[in-house]
Amino acid sequence: LPSLSLPSSMHLIQVDSVQRWMEDLKLMTDCxxxxxxxxxxxxxxxxxxxxxxxxxxxxxxxxxxLLLKRAWIISTELTRISQKLEKNRWQRVHxxxxxxxxxxxxxxxxxxxxxxxxxxxxxxxxxxxVVCCIFLPSSxxxxxxxxxxxxxxxxxxxxxxxxxNETLTTVAQYFGQLIELVLTHEAQNLLRxxxxxxxxxxxxxxxxxxxxxxxEGAHLCRIIAKEGGVVSLFKICRQDCFRCLYPQxxxxxxxVCCVEEGMHQLEKVDGILCLADILTDNSHSEATHAxxxxxxxxxxxxxxxxxxxxxxxxxxxxxxxxxxxxxCQEASSGEVFLLASAALANITxxxxxxxxxxxxxxxxxxxxAACSNRHIVDxxxxxxQVVTILANMSVLDQCxxxxxxxxxxxxxxxxxxxxxSSGNSAEVAACERVQQKSAVTLARLSRDPEVADAAVKLSxxxxxxxxxxxxxxxxxxxSVLVACLVALRRLAVMSPDGLEDSDFQQLVKPRLVDxxxxxxxxxxxxx
Length: 527
What we know:
One of its GO terms (biological process) is establishment of mitotic spindle orientation. By secondary structure, this protein is mainly alpha-helical. The chain has helices spanning 16-27, 31-39, 60-86, 90-114, 120-145, 154-196, 200-214, 218-226, 229-237, 246-256, 260-268, 271-280, 286-299, 311-330, 334-350, 353-360, 363-371, 380-393, 399-405, 408-415, 425-445, 449-457, 460-469, 478-494, 501-508, 512-520. It is flat, with a radius of gyration of 31 Å.
């Protein structure tokens, strides 16, 4: 409901009765009339620019995104109404309930313009929500006009608030159920299209729409997984006639498998075996291999807590790791290398046997060589994956000689200087991880005298001291500080002559926690 404003000429006449009438007019809006007006179709020719206008040119996915946008607005408004109600801002409560009423009616009408075969349960929810939304502003308007809400009786006000809150809760509950039904219904339609379509174009269109839905969040991924999305997508990946759709299908699978329901479905349909077959089949395109690597990276992510059931992964791990190393070696772009190296990095967390396999495959040599190619390892994100692999492999004694031969200490030294060029928060975080993991790798490898000697000759000690003493050099990261202190102490044992006395007294000799507290309390001007 637009707020009313007086014409400029009216401001010269200060008439209390007119002003009071203007204030009351806002609250006397006939909600039913507003809803009817809001629901009337508008000519497309006259309102082509109207963002809430749905026409046949929109795809199902466009319509759903518009619907989700409207749903977000309604949810936000319901929350704000509750907040205003607590503050007794009755005029705002009334105007906002009218606005929510219009949004709900519009959303229902918009969905009904493009939905197919909606269920009886959905129709019933539509009616219930509409009734509640009409009742809410009407009741508040009645309370205001009857001056009930101006009473000083706390019990009456408390009872009124309780009644309104109860209605708001009911609306929110039914509205949530309606959105769940709508999304489930549309996911079912897309999956049915994938299953039954004999047209390559229609199948590709349905997969594309499904992928777009997965980008709306984990909740939609759960719905898709529960409705058999993982099963349908792997059916596509097992049919040679759909080879051109493999990259798109695998990208969608990677998104769906970010939730536990997707992972369980993947295990049930032997998805790991299918991914291994794709990765080891040289007849597939690099794009297909890269997207398969992305699925592997997703399902082995160390941030997920539900990977324990992937027992079949261990059975196929050697084949998968071998294929991923080859993909890293032959990558034609930074994106392909990033996906393959991310999968390898996650696998090294997933099972320690992976590090031994990588060592046998000369993976360290391949990764170190890739880092010298700025067209392949071209972002902090890629270097983060490489140094993660090096850090996890560095627990093996045989890694020290590989590092020396591949000029790896020089690379680790360069990574200690990693800084973001854009200032983007995600890139800054990636740079911090690169600094931290390179320091961790140095600390682990410096148990070997040859590596420690190489690190000292490359002036790693002064750089570690700088990172400890200068918060800006490490972007105020505590994790980088701890890793640098540990690496410095390890190198100091191997080469005590490389430190000045003040550095030794403050950064090496005290307990680690005392040195940490000293460095975190340092002022930049003191350095």
